[in-house]
């Protein structure tokens, strides 16, 4: 049996940009992606701590070292620049393996990558 488990989490990061006219997705600094073990085009759930909005999208790599977190397309309506969000990716894993699995969680606002 497989279960869906948290794989990666960028806990509390500020939205730096918003681009309503882009076709969709969230742009994330590649350094943050690497630190959290999130891949380009991976499906993520985004939760806005400021207003409670939640949405799913896919990741586009942003400029390394830029700190960019940009909500694109329709998601730009759900967040504001400066909002603090949590970005989570999940994986399917065998139940027995899940008992020992530890997700990769980073805390950018606390400088704990």
Please tell me about this protein's structure.
The chain has 113 residues and is mainly beta. Helices cover 10% and strands 47% of the residues. The chain has two helices and eight strands. The radius of gyration is 14 Å and the shape is globular. The mean pLDDT is 95.
Which outline best applies? globular
Topology as H/E string?
A: EEEHEEEEHE
Strand tally, please? 8
Strand % is over 45%
Main beta sheet strand tally, sense and closure: 8 strands, mixed
**What is the CA–CA distance across the termini?**
32 Å
Q: Number of helix segments?
A: 2
How are the strands ordered across the major sheet? 2-6-3-5-4-7-1-8
Uncertain segments are none
- The whole-angstrom Rg is 14 Å
Helix coverage percent: under 10%
Mean pLDDT: 95
Q: Structural class from helices and strands?
A: mainly beta
